[in-house]
Amino acid sequence: MQGIEPKIHREMIKRINDLEQLLKETSQQDSICTDEIFLMNIKLSALYEEYLTMKKRLENCINLYRLQHIEIRKELAQSIKKLKREKINQK
After folding, report:
1. Is 54 left (phi over 0), alpha (psi -120 to 50) or beta?
2. Cα dist. 7→12, 13, 43, 84 in Å?
3. In sequence order, which residues have a C-beta less than 8 Å from that of residue 74 and are 6 or more positions away?
4. b/e sequence 12-28, b meaning 16+ C-beta within 10 Å
5. pTM of the entire predicted model
6. Dihedral, CA atoms, 11, 12, 16, 19, nearest 10 degrees?
7. How far is 64 from 67, CA to CA, in rounded Å?
8. What is the pLDDT of residues 8-59, one digit of tens each?
9. Angle, alpha carbons 83-89-91 (nearest 5°)
10. 40 touches 19 (CB < 8 A)
């Protein structure tokens, strides 16, 4: 989570800032950069979709890990209880 999401987040923020700056410059000029703005907007949308997809995958992985961790802890607790019972019964 720390490796994937922040990198995409930083890239997306950088592109948003670039697009915002371009829009400010364009409002001062004629509509020369309209195509460039359009392309940046498409790229930004694609990047955002990729970000959401990766975030969803990451959340799914975390949930699966959490469920597996809970199951393993339950099994381990049962095994420990069983060993304690066996030890008490041997005495």
Report:
1. alpha
2. 9, 10, 16, 49
3. none
4. eeebeeebeeeeeeeee
5. 0.54
6. 70
7. 5
8. 677 777 877 777 777 777 665 555 567 777 777 788 888 888 888 888 988 8
9. 110
10. yes
